[in-house]
Specification:
By secondary structure, the protein is of the alpha/beta class. The protein is 48% helix and 10% strand. The strands form four sheets. The protein has an 18-stranded mixed β-sheet, sandwiched between helices.
Length: 1233
């Protein structure tokens, strides 16, 4: 702990003590100087001692790498768990569902002591872990022993709970000396200050109980720890006695041959079979961005080709790197460059590991295990068996100096996925460094195991320009002309982000000397035409016909059929035998194919492949478009029959629609109608679905060069779309096209755009839509970048015209004070808007003051939300307060995470005390205030009779503040919701709120999440609701109440008949606690919503809950995600749900459920008529089965008539993880089969 943090902590403790000085002691306890001495020693050992031990632990195990350190020692800790030295609650803290969320902050002093002794490489003191070391020995290990020894010594006084002054001073000095040596000198003065602080009787009891609990826990492990240490020492001796094998000799000659192979084979780029380019002459570095694995948002840009192993917050030493990207973005070229530079001995980034051997393997060419692939693709054909085995032995012995580059995971045969799983899960070559590349849909199952997730985003504008200059270095004028044409064409500028498209564009421009396509489909059509004309020239054939594709229609149809059949079988190799007997090597088909390179020495027969998978997809789309026009393929049937692989086939279908747009406008419109019909099947789903996204892509693809068709398609989408509410969370969503469609839409009422779109162009599109749309009532959107004053004025003008919009939320750094001043002009005249939200909009006092002026005259606005704007300070809040004195409409105000301090809060308090304000809801979370403001808020609650909701989170309320607020609740008769999360509210506060609830008869919702109540606090709090008649919602998430706390709460819900919602998430509740809650559910007659997520509930706990579900008749919503119920737990729940008739929503995501559990839910689907949704996200941690460990899109749907699985959401969420089951009768309905 840093000096500053420790002083803050100390100040908080001291401050709480002062504020509690007048508190009445418990009836059962009388405080004296001697009892205060004992309590001070308990406080010093428990609070400061745990802080110092945690600091010591963190020095050895940096927090950023803690999950990796625990993973390394899992076997050791598992032994401790089996011997009951670690209990289920402690195990849950060590290995939470999200492994990177583990934190030593959640470790109690007993757990810290066990970890320090067993997994921190500390030496056992000569006198052992339980005896007091000699005074001369002051090592870290010795002082850790002293902390425990002094704990035992102090606990020897527990019976009387008192220590005289002389003994107290000796103990205090001894404990202080040990803690200062361990923690540093910053603790010395602070500990002295604690010695002289007044000890409140309430705190005396609290710290006595904590020391007792520590002693009890530790006694349970003492003997067992000695036994484990003996066993470990014996194992280490046995291990050390074994003869270690000699390192394998470095196969220098073979490594040199591999280098030469790379220089020869990977030094050439062949964007087309007949076009070879030197890698170093043409290579242009693509944009590579590291992504946050949880949120899938960009974190930072990778600045060099070999910078992919750079440490980051999620991993200090990455070993496995996954690079994802769309087709043609340069994934393969990147791999070629990495191995080519290694073969050339090029310098690498400082973060790049010290590598002696790089092994580039093409996943497409693999047919066996990893060793067979290395032999097949990299080793000489004439290598001797012994030499090969020695090479493999060298790899195994030097894993940390070996880099595996696995290119094209999405192209690998599906039956080989277990090989890649073994690699990324460290079951094979666990120390080797690995780089994998894949399309996003091909890496879903392995993504979570990778240390670093990168996205290759193609060329930045300057890089695409550099590529073009490289390509036209001998035709400089032509290259400059192309660059000028690109600058004048927005669509083309977006297209050349893709390196493959850029290469094709250069080729096209060179051969046809000008003329630019505007869409991806048009580019491929023109390239096809170009290649066919080149073929005619080469063969001396006439090529005067402007449409060579028509001349060679039969050949192209044959190629398309071959491409389509291969894609359906998930292969890219084309055997020679698939061609008709009349097909010769002089056929134009082979202009689009290349003979399979001899990277594989196992294939002796001739086979071909497309130069890039996107060409295969294009020709498959060309074939399908012809089949549809002929009436031989039904597009709707195609979508239905292929929906299990719809995401992977999307490029083919997009080409199909795009080509139809060029051939037949009516045909394209007919296909769009079918896609819209599919979209409307999900009209009650909030998130944007695959079909809507696909419909917009189709419009963009086949109407780019046909404005008439574009207008028809947009109008068709807008008038036929039946969605009512839409949330857009993908920054690649075609937002401009969609906004155009909304101009004629008459169903959508709620639009939430949750990803930032940039600048005036987006604002103009939005304004144009709002000017004519007549159904939207709520719009939420984020805008980053610069928005000009005219752009904002345009938006304000459109809002004045709009007569339906009631709720408006703007966010993003594009706004600021000037923009708000313009919008204020609209707000002064608005007669429709009821809620205005400017969350995180970069506004300060000038903007907030302008809004205050609005409130003086506006009579319709009842909600204003200005949270997360730190620039808003006291001056503007005072202006708001003045406006509130005359405003009679505003009922909700949110000023959380702003820059206001005590003065601003006191101004608000004065307004609320008058009871003339219309405010009924106030949010003041995470602001910089002192106890003075907390006291003022408590006073308001005592006298105000209008406020119904108060959110006051993250304000360091503490025990003293909690006491004031709890006392006010006894007098308050209007407040219905009180949220005090993240306020350092500790166990003694449980009694305070319990007493308040016994008196208060109006509070309906009490939120105390992420505090420090613990089991004792939960026990004290639980007594209040047993006599309260108004409370319906209680949230104690993140309070570490454990099984004992759960037992107390369970007793409350067993007899309390008013509570409808209970949240106990993140509380280290195991099977015993779940069992107690389950027993209570059998008697409870009111609870509808129960949240037990992020706990340590196993199969036994799930079985208890299942038993409760058989008889409970009220529970409708149950959250069990992020537990460890496994297959057995899932099966127990399914058995209970066969008879339960009330549960509608169940979440069992992240529960280590395998195929057997998924099978149980599959079988449940005709036996339960009330369950609407089952979420089983990311349960793919076991052996692959027919129902387990699948992508959502692979779950069978046609045979599920009762409540089909939503394939739609799988397609939108495969970037986040695998959906094994997500079923819904109402909101996720698919057509009956």
């Amino acid at each position: 702990m840093s000096h500053n943090l420790f002083n803050i902590w100390l100040y908080s403790i001291a401050y709480f003590r002062k504020t509690m000085a007048t508190a009445a002691p418990p009836v059962s306890f009388s405080s004296t100087k001697e009892t205060a001495n004992y309590a001070r020693l308990c406080h010093l050992l428990v609070e400061v001692g745990s802080c110092v031990l945690r600091n010591t632990f963190d020095k050895i195990n940096p927090p950023s790498d803690l999950h990796k350190h625990l993973k390394t020692h899992r076997a050791t800790l598992q032994q401790l768990r089996m011997k009951k030295i670690l209990n289920p609650t402690q195990w849950g803290k060590l290995y939470p569902a999200i492994r990177t969320s583990v934190s030593s902050k959640n470790f109690d002093i007993t757990l810290l002591t066990v970890l320090l002794r067993n997994i921190c490489s500390l030496s056992r003191p000569a006198t052992g872990w339980n005896a007091l070391p000699p005074a001369a020995v002051t090592s870290t290990e010795a002082d850790i022993v002293r902390v425990k020894y002094f704990r035992n010594t102090v606990y020897g006084h527990a019976e009387n709970a008192s220590v005289d002054d002389a003994t107290f001073n000796v103990y205090w000095q001894d404990i202080k000396d040990a803690l200062v040596r361990l923690g540093g000198t910053a603790y010395g003065v602070a500990i002295d200050d604690l010695k002289n602080e007044c000890m409140d009787p309430l705190f005396e009891e609290h710290y006595r109980e904590l020391l007792k609990e520590w002693k009890r826990d530790d006694d349970n492990t003492k003997d067992k720890l000695n036994e484990i240490h003996w066993m470990l020492e014996e194992l280490m001796k046995a291990s050390a006695s074994k003869t270690q094998p000699k390192d394998a000799e470095e196969p220098a000659e073979l490594i040199q041959r591999i280098r030469q192979l790379y220089l020869t084979r990977e030094g050439q780029l062949s964007p087309f079979p007949w076009c070879d380019l030197e890698l170093n002459d043409i290579f242009t570095r693509p944009t590579i961005v590291r992504q946050d694995k949880t949120r899938r948002t960009a974190a930072e840009q990778v600045t060099s080709i070999t910078g992919v192993f750079k440490p980051h917050n999620g991993c200090s030493k990455p070993r496995i790197v996954l690079i994802e990207g769309e087709p043609g973005m340069g994934k393969t070229t990147y791999c070629q460059k990495v191995v080519y530079d290694w073969a050339n001995g090029q310098e690498t980034d400082a973060s790049f590991p010290k590598i002696k051997l790089v092994l580039l393997l093409k996943c497409l060419d693999m047919s066996g295990n990893i060793w067979e692939a290395i032999d097949d693709q990299l080793l000489p054909k004439d290598i001797e068996k012994e030499e090969r085995e020695n090479f493999f032995k060298y790899i195994r012995a030097n894993q940390s100096q070996v880099l595996l580059v696995l290119d094209g995971l999405d192209e690998a045969p599906s039956n080989l996925m277990k090989i890649f799983s073994d690699l990324v899960e460290s079951r094979e070559l666990s120390k080797s460094h690995i780089i994998l590349t894949s399309r996003q849909e091909g890496s879903v199952k392995i993504r979570k195991y990778c240390d670093t997730l990168l996205q290759i985003q193609g060329f930045a504008p300057e890089n695409s320009h550099n590529y073009i200059k490289h390509y036209f270095k001998d035709l400089e004028a032509q290259g400059q002309n192309l660059l000028k044409d690109i600058e004048q064409n927005i669509e083309l500028g977006e297209l050349i982000v893709n390196p493959l498209f850029t290469a094709m564009l250069c080729l096209f421009y060179e051969y046809l000397e000008g003329g630019l396509p505007l869409s991806k489909t048009q580019l491929y059509l023109e390239i096809t035409e170009c290649i066919l004309k080149r073929f005619c020239q080469k063969q001396g054939l006439s090529h005067d016909n402007d449409n060579q594709s028509e001349v060679y229609k039969e050949e192209l149809e044959q190629l398309g059929r071959i491409a389509w059949e291969a894609l359906k079988r998930d292969i890219m190799h084309i055997d020679k035998g698939v061609f008709t007997a009349t097909t010769t090597r002089k056929s134009p088909l082979f202009e689009f194919l290349s003979v399979q390179s001899n990277s594989s020495k196992r294939r002796s027969h001739t086979c071909y492949r497309f130069s890039h998978k996107s060409f295969q997809e294009f020709f498959a789309g060309l074939y399908l478009s012809d089949q549809i026009l002929k009436g031989e393929t039904d597009f709707e049937g195609l979508l239905a029959n292929e929906r299990q692989n719809l995401k992977s086939l999307e490029p083919v279908l997009l080409f199909t629609v795009g080509i139809l747009g060029h051939k037949s406008e009516d045909g394209a419109l007919s296909l769009l109608k079918i896609i819209i019909m599919k979209t409307n099947l999900f009209k009650n789903v909030v998130l944007s679905n695959f079909y809507l996204y696909f419909a917009l892509k189709c419009i963009g693809e086949c109407s780019m060069e046909n404005s008439g068709l574009r207008s028809q398609m947009i109008n068709l989408l807008g008038t036929n779309l039946e969605l009512q509410c839409l949330m857009i969370s993908d920054d690649s969503f075609p937002i401009k096209l969609f906004l155009e469609a909304l101009q004629v839409n008459s169903t959508l009422t709620l639009l939430h755009i949750l990803v930032p779109f940039f600048g005036d162009q987006f604002i103009v599109s939005l304004a144009n839509m709002l000017r004519v749309n007549k159904t939207l009532t709520a719009v939420v959107f984020i805008t980053n970048g610069f928005v000009s004053a005219p752009g904002v004025q345009n938006l304000a003008d459109s809002l004045m015209v709009n007569k339906t919009l009631c709720d408006l939320l703007f966010s993003g750094n594009a706004w600021g004070d000037n923009a708000v001043r313009i919008l204020a002009g609209y707000l002064k005249r608005s007669v429709n808007l009821s809620s205005f939200d400017l969350t995180a909009s970069d506004i300060g006092d000038p903007g907030a003051t302008a809004l205050a002026e609005v409130l003086r005259t506006n009579t319709t606005l009842n909600g204003m939300h200005l949270q997360r704007n730190p620039g808003i300070g006291n001056p503007s809040v005072m202006s708001l307060c003045e406006a509130l004195r005359v405003n009679t409409a505003l009922s909700s105000l949110n000023l959380s995470e702003t820059g206001i301090s005590d003065a601003g809060v006191l101004s608000l308090v004065e307004v609320l005390k008058t009871n003339t304000s219309s405010l009924t809801s106030l949010s003041l979370s995470d602001i910089k205030i002192s106890h003075r403001s907390v006291k003022s808020i408590a006073e308001v609650l005592r006298v105000n009779c209008t406020l119904k909701e108060l959110t006051f989170e993250g304000n360091k309320v503490g025990v003293g503040g909690a006491k004031l607020i709890a006392e006010s609740l006894k007098a308050n008769t209007t407040l219905k919701l009180l949220s005090l999360s993240r306020n350092n509210i500790k166990a003694p506060c449980g009694r305070l709120f319990s007493d308040a609830l016994k008196v208060n008869g109006t509070l309906e919702s009490l939120i105390l999440a992420e505090n420090a109540l613990g089991a004792r606090g939960a026990q004290l709090l639980s007594e209040g609701p047993r006599v309260n008649t108004s409370l319906t919602h209680l949230d104690l998430s993140g309070n570490s109440i454990g099984d004992d706390g759960a037992k107390s709460i369970a007793e409350t819900i067993r007899i309390y008949a008013s509570l409808t919602s209970l949240k106990l998430s993140q509380n280290s509740i195991g099977d015993p606690g779940a069992n107690k809650v389950s027993e209570a559910l059998k008697d409870n007659v009111s609870l509808e919503d129960l949240d037990l997520s992020f706990n340590a509930i196993g199969a036994a706990g799930a079985e208890s809950i299942a038993e409760a579900l058989k008889s409970n008749a009220t529970l409708t919503y149950l959250k069990l995600d992020y537990n460890v119920i496994g297959d057995n737990g899932a099966q127990s729940l399914c058995e209970a749900l066969k008879t339960n008739a009330t549960l509608t929503d169940l979440n069992v995501s992240y529960n280590n459920i395998h195929s057997a559990g998924a099978q149980a839910f599959d079988e449940l689907q005709g036996l339960n008529n009330t369950l609407k949704k089952v979420a089983m996200i990311m349960n793919n941690n076991g052996d692959f089965g027919d129902h387990g460990d699948q992508e959502f899109s692979e779950v069978p749907m046609i045979s599920l008539p009762s409540f089909p699985i939503s394939h739609d959401l799988s397609l939108r969420f495969t970037e986040q993880g695998s959906f094994d089951v997500l079923v819904s009768r109402e909101t996720l309905m698919l057509p009956q089969q």
